[in-house]
Amino acid sequence: MIPDLTSEITFRKLSIFMTFMETGNIARAAEVLNLSGVSVHRALHTLEENVRCPLFTHKGRNLIALPAAWTLLEYCQEVMQVMERGLEEARKTAGVGQGRLRVGTLYSLTLETVPQLIMGMKLRRPDLEMDLTMGSNETLLHMLEEGLLDAILISISESEIDRNNLEVLPLFHDDICLAAPASAQLNTDALADLRDYKDQKFVALAEGFATYAGFQEAFHIAGFEPEIVTRVNDIFSMLSLVQAGVGFTLMPGRMKKVYENSVRLLKLAEPYQMQQLIAIVFARNREQDPSLRALAAEGRMYARRLEQNATP
After folding, report:
1. CA dihedral defined by 205, 209, 214, 218, rounded to 10 degrees?
2. Partners of 304 in the β-ladder
3. 3-class DSSP string for the chain
4. Which of 35, 105, 179, 310 has CA 20 to 30 A from 205's CA?
5. CB–CB of 174/278 below 8 Å?
6. Beta-bridge partners for 154
7. Which residues on neighbouring strands pair with residue 248, listed in sequence order?
8. Tens of pLDDT along 118-150?
């Protein structure tokens, strides 16, 4: 059975008590703790009331510890040591503070965004190891919620984000474009009206990926169901199929640098235009984790650089 310890005996009071016992003086204890002497005296007085036995006696203006206080000090030291070990083990179980950060990312962000964040993190925290997991929006969010990842980089435009429990740090917006094989005969001077591609074959990402919902919505607006030859589980496979002439697709503009010589890109016409908002997402109750704070700081720097480069 759990002993009936009063809720008024707090770790704060015990810490003040231990510091007083070490310094032997209220003024010195207050200086060490960056508190007022009145606060230290009040904490010691209420602790004595909570313990329900005399701990101190007054000798002039000085507070002198009684034998009971020295006995309590021994147990306080044990309690603090046990609690420190408990906190350390809890962090280990949660994967926090172990010199390793488990990051999930969309495949498409491994071209530029993730490498730049990793390089920045290495400068901030050279000893930190980063484990990288790639997957769909849906998979990465589930892994974050299950505690299998510490942070994820996803498109929040297509995700249901629990803002009460998850912290979201926006990085950049990205336009979705029509992608076609290099051999396709296209009018590159005009915006792409999807209705003009009703007879074309398409390749697409599977459900749960960032562009899946946007793909569905765009063709819903166009008023027809596209002929999808195949669905794949990563954007590189999808664009390899486009390169090979298997079909057209919709893809984020961030892939352009790699595929601009082998895939033709067209901006979508106004009714179908859409953007993805790419962001770093992590649990709000982990926001004081030093590794996540470093990742968030690097993310803000990255977003600022993109914004400065985009400014004429």
Report:
1. 20
2. none
3. CCCCCCCCCCHHHHHHHHHHHHHCCHHHHHHHHCCCHHHHHHHHHHHHHHHCCCCEEEECCEEEECHHHHHHHHHHHHHHHHHHHHHHHHHHHHCCCCCEEEEEECHHHHCCHHHHHHHHHHHHCCCCEEEEEECCHHHHHHHHHCCCCCEEEEEHHHCCCCCCCEEEEEEEEEEEEEEEECCCCCCCCCCECHHHHCCCEEEEECCCCCCHHHHHHHHHHHCCCCEEEEEECCHHHHHHHHHCCCCEEEEEHHHHHHHCCCEEEEEECHHHCCEEEEEEEEEHHHCCCHHHHHHHHHHHHHHHHHHHHHCC
4. 310
5. yes
6. 279
7. 202
8. 999 988 888 888 999 999 999 999 999 998 999
- Say if pTM beats, i.e. exceeds, 0.70: no
Given a cut of 50, the residues of the chain with pLDDT beneath it are 1-3
Q: What would the two tokens of residue 123 be? A: 């400068």
For residue 7, the model assigns a pLDDT of 64
Cα–Cα distance list, 292 to 167, 177, 289 (Å): 11, 33, 5
Q: What pLDDT does residue 3 have?
A: 47
The predicted-structure confidence for 197-240, as pLDDT tens digits, reads as follows 999 999 999 888 878 888 888 999 999 999 999 999 989 999 99
